[in-house]
Amino acid sequence: MQFGLNESQELLKSNARKFFAGECPMDAVRRLMETETAYDPQLWAKMAEQGYTGIIFPEEYGGVGLGTVELALLTEEAGRALLPGPLFSTVALAGATINAVADHEHKREYLEPICAGDARATVAILESSTSWDLGELTMTGVNGKLTGEKLFVTDAAVADFLLVVARNGVFLVHAKAPGLKITPMLGMDMTRKLYTASFSETPAEKVGETGGLAKAFDIATTALVAEMVGGMQRTLDITVEYAKTRKQFGKPIGMFQAVQHQCADMYLETESSRSAAYYAAWTLQEGTPEAPLAVSIAKMYASDAARNVGNHGIQVHGGMGFTWENDIHLFYRRAKASETTLGDATFHRARIARHAIDNAV
Amino acid sequence: MDLKLTTEEKQFRDELRGWLSVNLPKDWDEWRQKPIEESFPYLRAWQRKLHEGGWAAVSWPKEYGGRSATLMQSAIFWEEMARVEAPPMANSLGLGLIGPTIIAFGTEAQKKRFIPKILSAEEIWCQGFSEPNAGSDLASLQTEARLDGDQYVVNGQKVWTSYGWVGNWCELVVRTDSAAAKHKGLTVLLVDMKSSGVEVKPLRQMTGESEFNEIFFRDVRVPVENVLGKVNDGWNVAVSTLMYERGSYGARLHSIFTRNISRLIELSRKVLRNGKPASEDPVIRQRLAQCYAEIEIMRLNQLRAFSRMTATGVPGPEGSIQKIFWSELNQRVQQLAQEVFGPYGQLLAGDPHAIDNGIWSYGYLRTRGNTIEAGTSEVQRNIIGHFVLGLPRSY
Fold first, then answer.
1. Residues 281..300 of A with a Cβ closer than 8 Å to B: which?
2. Among the CATH numbers 3.30.200.20, 1.10.472.80, 1.10.540.10, 3.40.50.300, which is that of A7-116?
3. Which residues in B lie closer than 8 A to residue A294 (C-beta atoms)?
4. What are the chain B neighbours of A251 within 8 Å (beta carbons)?
5. B317 CA to chain A: closest CA distance, Å?
6. Structure pTM?
7. Which of A131, B179, B388, B395 is found 20 to 30 A from A248 (Cα to Cα)?
């Protein structure tokens, strides 16, 4: 039993850190977040070259064939860099969904271009009820057409196709399909844009059943938690650095226990989130029966932790933490958006309760 | 990363399971609610049985009666003990903290003399660290030892000594050089509690019982061969003990926590809240789930810490997150239990309406000590701030 990373995992992680630090420093993040879509085609091409867009997909579709642990390490580093754009939507969400629900022909057609870096995609799930319980969705495919509205769809404006979760299956809608209207929602996180997608008699191809979605969303959730861990780690690093250098009363503020103990709490919650994220990734990779529970534990814990870590980070920075110029609020905004994506702590606690109290998953 | 058991780990686990299936006592449930004074001989007998099977201290080297188990095998050991809800061992400080310190710093003669009886629970160990004026600031302790021929003469007072009432031997930190800087003049002595001049008094704590003691030393003579480690190097020896405490104690506690949450969930199905079982109340369900999940995260943090320790060889300051995590979590679990039980929660042992004969009211009060004993949460956060995050020392 070994809960540390092996050599190739360490290498992947450190390469990803270097890559994002070089290709997507904070000034690039700020430039992209001010654009309409936060998408940079050149950066995308470079990520595809690194194999990031096909990281967990089978080699027969041009993927790299690595596991969920490697995906988590990649998204952790993307989170540390606050990478803007549709990597999460395309790979962890849409790619994982196609891979889980679609047949060979559909994977050829849609997963291959994702792996190659030629296509961006996303998944439309939530409706106005904002319930992550898929049983509560109302949209239904009728005669190969969809009508209705999906909300909080990430990166929809740069997606070449959308996977739409309906009551009677997972449907694929091309970006240029008639009757599809993509409208920006003004979310707090400017690095991952949100949209409404409305469908009016929009042609949609059914690519699979909803039964396979649980697995796909567990993978996406774990990737998201790992991304949150990266954001927490960066927030902690920035905060500790500031506490060492900022002086008041003639001393670095990090010398004061009121400050130091907040940093210690940030560390505790970051490390605990990381333990939970890595474990969830591993259970998914191995297909162990506790995987869904492990995923819920990770998302539950990280959803609260990411907010707490951000709260402390801003507080320790004092007035500086309240400025637009300081980067810490950018991570804080992402943390808030991620907190609700794929179920907040309350949603996942309810799932855990069904397992722990009712002995069901 | 590979959390599957290796062949060796599987063998280890299966051997332990086989042993437990034959040797695990069936009547622990009746004993566990009795006061520790009454159940102590039972725990001693259980440890002796484990020792006879070679299971008392799996992580110790084979030559000292252990199994040279890896940290992961130790983790498996504690997980298995949790799974079967095994009773704790009587000599828990000797096995968990003091034995490993003697193995690390002791002379061959000391190891031969002390280790076998720690394992067999023939000699129970206690820890003489804290003093009335040296709590978090342990290095300022004042109990002094003066060299007189081939003996040290010890004078002073220790406090918050667990197992003092039953202890045969004490790992005692004393000041041997009052002129040196406070960390530099300390020495660790191994003291026979039967020595003339040792007086043990019960310290009644807020729970009403006396789990801890005060120990007074008046001209107590300790032979020089009972110095553990080097003279005036006692701080290193003591800190090593504390690191074992912070680094691995969580693994043992996990078994208790798992049992507590299972029992609390079971009880929540029977206790009514607004006319329905508490287990159906959405707020209670949320909070039970939170505690359940955090107990799992505590286990995962411990496994990751073990992996790091396997790589570095020693428990590091990161052990402090374990200490903070388990102590604060235990308080949350007990507070939740009180909320689930409502007015019944306050009832003490002996009241016919008390739930589980009052172990929950006891637990509620007892867990207040968790964030104080073995290094306060404040000290643990100082350790993380300075030694892990590199912030300047605050004191």
1. 282, 286, 294, 296-297, 300
2. 1.10.540.10
3. 296
4. 392
5. 12
6. 0.94
7. B388
* A6, A244, A252 ranked by CB distance to B1: nearest: A6
CB neighbourhood size of B353 (10 A): 8
A261 and chain B in contact, CB less than 8 A: yes
C-alpha B390 chain-centroid distance: 28
Annotated catalytic residue: which of B245, B280, B294, B296? B245
CATH superfamily entry for domain B237-388:
Butyryl-CoA Dehydrogenase, subunit A, domain 3 (1.20.140.10)
User: A158-167 pLDDT, tens per residue?
Assistant: 999 999 999 9
With 0-12 / 13-18 / 19 or more C-beta atoms within 10 angstroms meaning exposed / middle / buried, residue B21 is: exposed
Q: Which helix (H) or strand (E) holds B237?
A: helix B234-268
> B347-377 pLDDT, tens per residue?
999 999 999 999 999 999 999 999 999 889 9
The residue written with tokens 């003093």 in the block is: B131
Integer distance in angstroms from the first to the last C-alpha of chain A?
26
Q: Give the CA angle between residues B347, B352, B356 to the nearest 5°.
A: 65
| CATH fold of B125-232 | Butyryl-CoA Dehydrogenase, subunit A; domain 2 (2.40.110)
User: Which of A1, A240, A278 is facing B5, going by the closest CB pair?
Assistant: A1
B38 is catalytic: no
Residues A120, A158 contacting (CB under 8 angstroms) = yes
Taking only Cα atoms into account, the Rg of chain B, rounded to an integer number of angstroms, comes to: 22
pLDDT tens for B255-268 read 789 889 999 999 99
CB contact under 8 A, A264 and B381: yes
CATH class of A212-356: mainly alpha
Which CATH number is A121-210 given? 2.40.110.10
Q: What are the structural domain ranges in chain A?
A: 7-116, 121-210, 212-356
Q: Give me the amino acid identity at B283.
A: V
Q: What is the CATH number of domain B7-119?
A: 1.10.540.10
B310 contacts in A (CB within 8 Å)? 2, 4
**Domain ranges in chain B?**
7-119, 125-232, 237-388
Establish whether this prediction's ipTM goes over 0.90: yes
